[in-house]
Amino acid sequence: PSATLREDYSPPDWLVPEIALDFSLDPARTLVRARMTVVRHEAHDEPLRLDGEGLKLLEVRRNGEKLDDGDWMLDDERLTIPLTGSEATVETLVEILPEKNSQLMGLYASGGILCTQCEAEGFRRITFFPDRPDVLTRYSVRMEADRKRFPVLLSNGDCVESGDGENGAHWARWEDPWPKPCYLFALVAGDLSANRDTFVTRSGKEVALAIWVREADLPKTSHAMQALKDSMAWDEHVYGREYDLSQFNIVAVSDFNFGAMENKSLNIFNSRYILADAETATDADFEAIAGVVAHEYFHNWSGNRVTCRDWFQLSLKEGFTVFRDQQFSADQGSAAVARIGDVRMLRAAQFPEDAGPLAHPVRPESYIEISNFYTATVYNKGAELIRMMHAMLGPHDFRKGADLYFERHDGTAATCEDFVTAMEDASGTDLGQFRLWYSQSGTPKVTAKLDYEAEDASAVLTLSQTVPATPGQPEKKPMAIPLKTALLGERSGRPIVAEHLVMLTDNEQEIVFEGLREPPVLSINRDFTAPVAMDSEKDPATLAFLSAHDDDPFARYEAMQQLMVETIIDAVSGRPVDHDPVIEAVRQTLTDPDLDKAFIAEAVLLPSESFVGDQMLIVEPEAIHRAREALRDDLGETLAEDWRAAYAASSGNAYTYNPAATGLRRLRAVALGYVAASGLDEAPQLATDQFESADNMTDRQAALAVLANSEWPERTGALEQFYDRYRNDALVLDKWFMAQALSTREDTLASVEALSRHPDFSIDNPNRLRSLVGAFGSNQRAFHAASGHGYRFLADFILKADAINPQTAARLLPPLGKWRRFDEERGAMMRAELERILAGPNLSKDVFEQASKSLG
Ligand code: DPP
Ligand code: ZN
């Protein structure tokens, strides 16, 4: 397979201002007639080339006239039609087989519903078309289907006509007035019921809202509906962006590669990001639903009104939209806790990517399969880039920049460069060096050292940066790194130099602070201003001080995390271990009455085993597990009374969903975990009671997780009960698989292997596959079992899944790419599995690219 390069971009030869699509829908065999107007774009002699994949071509017409086979050319990827003149009408008729479409790209069937997924290159699996985001087209869509099986027919825009057909069929015609790239096309046909509502925009236009699900799921749609209305209001209020059509539809389906898709006015969602009620969804699920509903809605401006010129610019819409949904979520509850969550996610998914063989810039230079670039780098690091511009420009100028960007590029396909230029022009800030963030991959490493001169009451801050070599980028230039910085007084614990933005732009830089009233302690990269790995050479006492006193909640959390990580790494490395500073810091935070409960819960949680592993040159999974468990047990035992008290204080409330209540449940879950670690006799009973009497899924799942990690005899019964209770609810059953796949017990690998033969396991459903096999790949201890059987298990599944759904298969692969970070035996076994995958028959481009780069 060959690579597509960013530098090879050239504008389309032919534009398609209009298309009329006519679907004769049947899951077994669907006919698609496409009539498009094509217009020559600038002067050239190129024929019309239309992308197509897996289509059975039945007919081609040019300007109304049927063409013979010799008049056009067809290969695996393309239909080529010679055209003269500057404009023509081209018509094709193709046959597709939705029921056989297991890739879930193009038109497919999910639980009796016909639906589409076109981003990035799925439209070519529906009809022949120039499948690239810089071709913007007005769509008119007619569809006909059996009325009984498919009573609801939806597409983009508005339904302008409908009626009855022959033999029990009915039809509808939808028109979308806004030209759009084909990846935003959508169609749905099915037996669906709607939760309907309305939203009145600030200029007084009424928008009809509907969330379409199976009838039995209707009661689970109210949270998503509220999130949609909140998002619509938020985007008007914060970005001045109003909705631009008279209806907005969301459809939830059970089989979906992504979380959701922002098709113009017809969002299609993975049901896990729509359906929720107290009994079946956790607080984290509720938050994720609001975040994804907001994300897809925000795409209407950042993605749809202004789209991407080519797929190398994916972060233009994704980075900006993730930043927007993060801002939205921060506004819904505790901003500090939201920020901690963003960073946790970035560090769990993006930092390892940036440090491994699949590292790529936020704006990649090349790809073999674009589906492989829907990554944490493009999304989450991309969002951090937007956030840094927000920090450098300030909210006022950032908004001016966003306004200018929308004004300049509305209705067009733009680039990341266009976005940065708009920010620059609106604010007068020079972002020249900052642009390197788009082209250089790798997480910059920043060291910060503060030297205090008591005699002249001054201090010198020495900052330095290095950007590590990454695949294809051996040499790096210094980046422009914004760092919110303050100095705290060592005696008072108060800020003595107020927070301000320091720009690190050279390899090394010195900053002098004068007039210091007392010895200073450095607080830097507050609120995680820049996505860097910070080494500020602080001793445990200083970290403990900051974890108790830093006035920036993120920095406070960060100091505690660092203290915990260093303590665990000391133990792993065989250095003398002192748990006391961690225990004391946790005690102070846990018992601080002024702190928000949700914040306490985040702050006292130990870093994950994989995060600790990521900080080591060579990861030692067993030793990390042991050291972390030892610290957990010590924390549990030494602070047993405090955990019991925190548990009791956060218990006994009837379920409600609001930030205060979710904070209490979060702390309760964390406290239960530590009570379990304390070895208190009552722990199994406490967990079992919570499991059995919970009036909501957050508490029940938290107890199940503790039980699933335990060696207690109560474990088996709890897992059985959970299964019996929820066996008919696919989304909850996913949690059951996941709790076992994430268990830190010794026998997890064996139990995951057994679960993969469970009658409810299915490799075809991406959610189920991810809940078992995906979760297992992220379980450092189990996946890296010294036998190598974890590697073999994952590789077997990647090969099996690749034959069904290459996109989803390829996303399971990254854990194997970490082989350089493990000892020789493990590394060799991981490489052997990658090689076995590469030797697989009929390997997809998706898996080929990930496996070959991972070996590289
Ligand atoms: N559906 C994916 C997202 O919203 C791709 N656009 O991020
Ligand atoms: Zn998105």
TrEMBL record:
It holds the Pfam family Peptidase_M1. Keywords: Aminopeptidase, Hydrolase, Metal-binding, Metalloprotease, Protease, Zinc. Residues 224-434 form the Peptidase M1 membrane alanine aminopeptidase domain. GO terms for biological process: proteolysis. It catalyses: Release of an N-terminal amino acid, Xaa-|-Yaa- from a peptide, amide or arylamide. Xaa is preferably Ala, but may be most amino acids including Pro (slow action). When a terminal hydrophobic residue is followed by a prolyl residue, the two may be released as an intact Xaa-Pro dipeptide. GO terms for molecular function: alanyl aminopeptidase activity; metallopeptidase activity; zinc ion binding. Residues 542-855 form the Peptidase M1 alanyl aminopeptidase C-terminal domain. It comes from the Bacteria. Residues 42-184 form the Aminopeptidase N-like N-terminal domain. This is Aminopeptidase N. It comes from Parasphingopyxis lamellibrachiae.
